[in-house]
Amino acid sequence: MEHVPVIHGMLAEFASDEGILDAAQKVFDAGYRQTEAYTPMPVHGLSEALGQSRTKVPVATFAAGCLGACLGFGMCWYANVISYTWNIGGRPPDSWPAFIPITFEVMVLCASFGALLSMLGLNGLPEPYHPVFNAPRFALASKDRFFICIEAKDPKYDSSQTRQFLESLDPVSITEVPE
After folding, report:
1. Could you write out the DSSP letters of every residue in 24-89?
2. Exposed end of the chain (fewer CB within 10 Å): N or C?
3. What's the pLDDT tens digit per position in 26-69?
4. Could you read off the pLDDT of 140-156 as tens digits, one per residue?
5. What is the spatial distance between Cα 10 and Cα 164, in angstroms, rounded to a whole number?
6. Which residues of 40-77 are buried (b: 16+ CB within 10 A; e: fewer)?
């Protein structure tokens, strides 16, 4: 039985940030939704051109910060009111102003971990292998070239039609990426 390679998608290479931004808008307008762009530097407006929604990292960071603040305050309250009650200077054991520094520090710590873990999780990292790494010229994505990959799992993907469409965008090269 002959081995038929599984295709990840079609990768188009562009020489400039203006070229990839224009191409990304045309890819989105043509109805392709399972796309990814790879650039050596941030390109303003590229994620909007590809129709990507805003990230959920700030929401996760806020939630983790709120959880951390509750944990920090609860830890202080439990230690001072339940576990080890002391009468210091005649203040009540649940004197909340004394809990503010610890509450703040635990909030910042949890928010930091929440931001890091949500960023890694939402980006699908760590990902030591990705099929586009097999493309011969993809190493240039970290130097001076810009790439758009239309993935084969896109409902509109058809190998010949997608290649024709990408050729109409005037790329430097087009490569079919094996899985």
Report:
1. HHHHHHTT--SEEEE-SS--TTHHHHTTPPPPSHHHHHHHHHHHHHHHHHHHHHIIIIIIS----T
2. N
3. 999 999 999 999 999 999 999 999 999 889 999 999 999 999 99
4. 999 999 999 999 999 99
5. 11
6. eeebeebeebbeeeeeebeebbeebbeebbebbbeebb
One-letter amino acid at 126 equals P
Cβ-contact 45, 28 below 8 angstroms: no
Half-sphere exposure of 126 (CA within 13 A, CB side): 1
| Closest alpha carbon to 35 in 179, 163, 148 | 148
Write the pLDDT tens digit of every residue in 75-119.
999 999 999 888 878 888 888 998 999 999 999 999 999 999 999
- The Cα 39–Cα 20 span in angstroms is 9
Give CA–CA dist 142/128, Å, rounded: 16
User: What are the structural domain ranges in the chain?
Assistant: 7-52+145-178, 57-122
Contacts of 41 (CB under 8 A, 6+ apart): 17
Pick the CATH number of 7-52+145-178 from 3.10.110, 2.60.120, 3.30.70, 3.40.30: 3.30.70
Q: How far out from the chain centre does Cα 105 lie? A: 26
Question: Which of helix, strand or coil describes residue 21?
Answer: helix
